[in-house]
Design goal:
By secondary structure, the chain is mainly alpha-helical. The chain has a domain at about 165-313. It contains 14 helices and no strands. The longest helix has 29 residues, at about 230-260.
């Protein structure tokens, strides 16, 4: 137990773990492929631009930063399964430290880049992954400042959110769940006008979106359970499966955060996200996004009772 360990020893152990996590991250093949000096220069440039008002960095440095951010994501997500193990161990501690450090560095790279603004859903997904990186690495305040610095992204996301009700089921379902997650992560853009005066407007907005989602899902005709005759039918069934499990995970987490007194819901949440990821395994972009949502959701669920890491508290 920590209470029986002298403070100096705990600090020494924490520093040793941080050093080992840094070494493990830097020695991952994807990260090590980029020279150390170049990594340092890119991170310095990212730090200088990440929260400056404006569009974010474009060419020629954008490719280098994007590549470095992707390398850190690969290194971090390689530790995800070990980090989510329920049994405490030294291996889990190291995996969690590498995951958080990799998320922190990937956040620094991505926050400095120019987000895509030509496609509303792409903008939402960009902001969503950035929020997940911030939550896993305990940088939610920087994430909130990022929204202030990228006001044009907020405008694009708001317009896309306003169009969701008129969309067919699949883009509506995806977009609504993405917006619900933005609320869970404390994104100011997620607030609905009717919830602006609430104590926790972002979480209230998430609850409102999920209620509307449930109503529309009740009227949605689920693909039949008969034989799958072609690739289109298979894709529809797998997408519906992923949407259902992502929705269940989102609702579970939202209720836990709002009530604050529930026991840790990490295990059930992980099952739903793992199921959604398995259905989307052929889509690398979706799989990576869901992996970061899984890490972010477990971070949130684990903090419900302590209430130390919840955005907005």
């Amino acid at each position: 137990m920590h209470v029986l360990v002298p403070v100096a020893d705990r600090d020494l152990a924490a520093r040793a773990l941080a050093d080992l996590a840094r070494t493990t991250l830097d020695e991952h093949w994807a990260v090590a492929a980029i020279p150390t000096e170049r990594r340092g220069l890119l991170l310095e440039r990212a730090d200088a631009a990440a929260l400056l008002p404006g569009d974010g960095l474009g060419e020629p440095i954008a490719d280098g930063l994007a590549l470095l951010g992707t390398a850190y994501e690969l290194a971090a997500l390689g530790q995800l399964d070990a980090a989510l193990q329920p049994t405490p161990s030294a291996a889990r501690d190291l995996a969690q430290a590498v995951l958080a450090l990799g998320a922190a560095r990937a956040f620094r790279c991505s926050a400095a880049l120019r987000p895509p603004i030509d496609d509303g859903e792409l903008s939402i997904k960009w902001a969503l992954k950035l929020g997940a990186l911030a939550l896993v690495s305990r940088q939610t305040e920087s994430y909130e400042r990022w929204w202030d610095a990228r006001a044009h992204v907020a405008d694009v996301v708001k317009r896309a959110a306003h169009r969701l009700d008129a969309e067919p089921w699949e883009p509506y379902a995806r977009g609504t769940l993405w917006m619900a997650w933005l609320g869970l992560m404390g994104a100011p853009v997620a607030v609905l006008p009717e919830n602006a005066a609430d104590e926790l407007p972002m979480l209230s907005a998430t609850r409102s979106r999920l209620a509307a989602f449930r109503e529309r899902r009740a009227d949605h005709e689920v693909p039949g359970e008969g034989p799958v005759l072609n690739a289109v039918a298979l894709r529809a069934r797998m997408t519906e499966f992923a949407i259902r499990h992502l929705a269940d995970a989102t609702e579970l987490l939202t209720v836990a955060v709002l009530r604050r007194t529930l026991p840790d819901v990490s295990a059930e949440f992980k099952l739903h996200l793992s199921a959604a990821r398995s259905a989307m395994a052929g889509d690398h972009g979706q799989d990576v996004l869901l992996a970061w949502l899984q890490a972010a959701g477990v971070t949130l669920a684990g903090g419900v009772t302590a209430q130390l890491e919840l955005p907005g508290f």
